[in-house]
Model the fold of this input.
Amino acid sequence: MERTTAGNGQFGGWVSSEVRRHLDQVRRARRQVLRRGDPGDVHRLRTGLRRLETALWLAGLTMRLGEGTQLGSLRPVIRATGRLRDHDVERRLLAGLAVAVGPERDAVDGLVAGMERARGELLARARMALRSEPTRRALLNARRGTRRPAWLPLAYRDLEGAREALWADAVNRLRRHPGWQLRWQEARSSERTLHGLRLAAKNVKQTGELLAIDPDRTKEAAGTTEVLGDLRDWRRVLQRLPARLAVARDEVRQRQAELAARWNGLRQQLAERSPC
Done:
C-alpha cells in the first residue's frame, strides 16, 4: 500500500490530537480517583478510557505507535475500574427498587449496605492498578507515540475520506456480529455473545462521536449499547436478590422485560434502515 506522511494530510495530525486530548482526560480522572474515588470520578475515568481506546484504535490503523502504547498495558486498570463501576451501578439500582417498607425493604437495604462496605476493597484494587508502573509507562508511551512520524494510506489523506472509511469499518463489524441475528429470548443465554455485541456497538457509538458523525446515523448503535448495558446490570441485580424477596425480584423482571422489548425493536430498526 502506498503511504504518505502525516504532514501531507489532515488526518494524521487530527488523530494525534485526539489521542492527546483523551489522554489528558484520563490523567485528570486518574488523579480524582486516587484522591477521592467517588462514583462520579470512577465513571469519568471509565468514559475517558473508553474514548482513549477508540482514539488509539484509530491511531493504530494509521500510525506507527511505540511498543506499549496500545491499551494492552492498561488492561489491569480497565478491568479493575470496570468492576468498581459495575459495583456502583448495581448498588444504585438495588437501592432504587420500589419495595415497600417492611421485611423485604429491610433485606434490600441490608444488601445495599453490604455492597457499600465491599466497595472499599474494589476501590483499593483500582487505585493499585492506577499507581502501577505499567500504567504510568503505557500513558507515557501513548503520548510519545503521537509525536512520531505517521503514515497514512492514500485513502486517508483527506480527513473526510478517512472519516467515512473508518466509520464504515466500525459499522460493518457490528452488522457482522452474530448477536444481531438473535432475539433477546435467544441471545440472553449467551453472556459472551451479548458482551461482544455490546462492545461492537459501543465501538460504533464512540467512533461516531470521535469522528463527529451525524448522531442520527449512530442511534441504533447508541441504543444497543444502552439497552444491553442496562440488561446486564439488571441481570446482576437479580442474581444478588435471594429467592425469598419475591416482590423485589418481580420488579427486576419487569424492568428486564421492558428492556428486552426495546432490544427487539432496535433489531427491527436495523433491518429496516442501515445504520450507515
Summary: The longest strand covers residues 3-5. Residues 1-9, 62-69, 149-155 have pLDDT under 50 and may be disordered. Residues 103-131 form the longest helix (29 residues).
